[in-house]
Design brief:
115 residues; alpha+beta; Ubiquitin-like (UB roll); five-stranded mixed beta sheet; 3 helices
Length: 115
């Protein structure tokens, strides 16, 4: 189980929900299941409207992370991540601060999602 805390000025208060790690549900699917107002349009990683900041709360090294090719392109073009952050994700398993909610798979770690 993972605790996913959603935080946004659009919400009265932060909301923490439980997500089953490894069930291949995206962060966007978890948000939609809990009726949270995360923006989205295409749901397939091409528009970038669901860009969110994701931070690991454990204080430990984040679990290995795989950026999709779509995320790399869209987030880089939007100026949300740098080529160095992409290289760090690919080579050192260091996640960048920005992800696409429609592409990010919830792992077995507690995170805060800001949107």
């Amino acid at each position: 189980m993972a605790n996913v805390t959603f935080s946004s000025p659009r919400m009265k208060k932060d909301l923490t929900v439980y997500a089953v790690a490894g069930d291949t549900k995206t962060l966007l699917a978890v948000a939609q299941a809990n009726k949270l107002p995360v923006d989205f349009e295409c749901e397939n990683g091409e528009c970038g409207s669901c860009a969110v900041q994701v931070s690991v709360l454990s204080g430990k090294t984040p679990l290995g992370v795989a950026l999709t090719e779509k995320e790399k392109i869209v987030l880089k073009l939007a100026g949300k991540i740098t080529p160095q952050q992409i290289a760090d994700a690919e080579n050192n398993d260091l996640p960048p601060p920005w992800r696409l909610a429609c592409q990010f798979i919830v792992r077995n770690e507690d995170v805060i999602v800001q949107f």
